[in-house]
Every structure is written in structure tokens, then in C-alpha cells.
Amino acid sequence: MLTTDKQLTPSRFWQAMIPRLANPKGLAVDRWLMRWFNVSFMGKMFTRAGGYADRPHLILKTIHWRSGKIKSVVLPYVKDDDQYLVVGSHGGRASDAVWCLNIRVHNSAWVCVNRKWLFVKATILSNDQRTRGFALVNADGGYSHYTKMTKGIRQLPVIALNPSLARQRPQEDVV
What we know:
CATH class: Mainly Beta
CATH superfamily: Electron Transport, Fmn-binding Protein, Chain A
Radius of gyration: 16 Å
Strand order of the largest sheet: 2-1-5-6-7-4-3
CATH architecture: Roll
Order of helices and strands: HHHEEEEHEEHHE
CATH topology: Pnp Oxidase, Chain A
Structural class: alpha+beta
């Protein structure tokens, strides 16, 4: 469970950098950094901009719901027993992120945690499980702002990624 001793001061510098760096090229660099160095620059930027403690990140590779191509995204996670919990915040938008749509159609995926690839079965949590899972991932309040931004239009999905059978490393997506 994530706990922080103190709330950090939000950084105006990093808040100003988000629109400049959060673009397809910046996200591609972030995936590359995660693959080779297990460091998410985007993750650090968002946590510093919001004044939250750094979180561990993983690479999630899903099968696109329409094209069938493998797509990847870097996400912060919380480890809960033997599963990884991630949130489909999509920056507080009114719709789910594409990777959430992919999970709803194809629940098989791959994750890279600490440079180790695992085959996982993804489950979107509901009811009491979702409440407990959201409390774990939002222990530092990092998702409270996104919850307010949705204005009650949707509930942020919490996804449990459960390691399954050992599978080979997925193919690279095209950037």
C-alpha cells in the first residue's frame, strides 16, 4: 500500500511542462526509458506536477479492440498481494482510455515490471472489490483530481492484472 509521510508541494515548472512533453513522441520516449531503465519520466513529471510521491510504473501491452495490433502504455501501479492494480483515469476525461477498451474486449495482456515480462489476465473490478482497490491506489490522493474532473459522468475503472501462465515477450508496437 502506498503511504506518504507528507504531501509534497506541486511544481509549477512540471505543470507547465506537461502540455509540451505529453505527446506521442514523449510517450514513445517514456516507453523506451521503461523498457531499458525501468524509469518513467512522464510518471515523475505528473507526480511532481501534482505534488505526490513517485510511484512504480509498469508497461502494459494490450491487444487493440478493433485492429488486433499490440499496443503499449506506461502506467503507475500498486502491488496488492500477487496482482497489480492500475486505474483507467484517462486524465479525467469523460471516456475510458483506449487501453481500457482493449481490456474490456481482450482480457489477456502482458506487463513489464522491473524489466521482467509477465503474461496477465486483466479484470475490471466492480462493487466492493473496486472500492477496496481504489482506496489502495488512491492512498496518496493522486486520483482524487481525476475523479472530480469526470463530474460523475463515469467511474474511474480499477483493473487488476493477475499474472498467469508464462508466455513469451510480446512483439514491439510500431511508433
